[in-house]
Amino acid sequence: MPTRLSDYEVDQAIGGLLRFGVIIAAAVTFVGGVLLLFQHGGAPVARQTFQGEPAALTSIASIFRGAMALNGEAIAQLGLLLLIATPVARVALTLGAFALQRDRKYVVITSIVLALLLYALVFGKA
Length: 126
Description:
Layout: H1 7-40, H2 60-68, H3 72-100, H4 104-123
């Protein structure tokens, strides 16, 4: 039977997760930025019109495919995706901690929050 976690242990785990997530996201974004400069640094810039990200960078699957192909834009986008995923992972970790603590009220509340976050990430339109 799992042991009950103290609030201090939960706080330490959450802090570690957030720290790790931000460091990894920053490192991946940095690598993507460096690759992007090497791959497209000499390209002319058209400042007359705004161009959003390419269609290949608008879905999670295509971002992963581009990152595996060492596309600098895709790797930088993956870093941003990891940065967005970090607080979602925090909510999931908190849900697990509340479940281990057998705190039903907060398990329900955190489950609703996690479901809303995931729904917004998957089905939300910017």
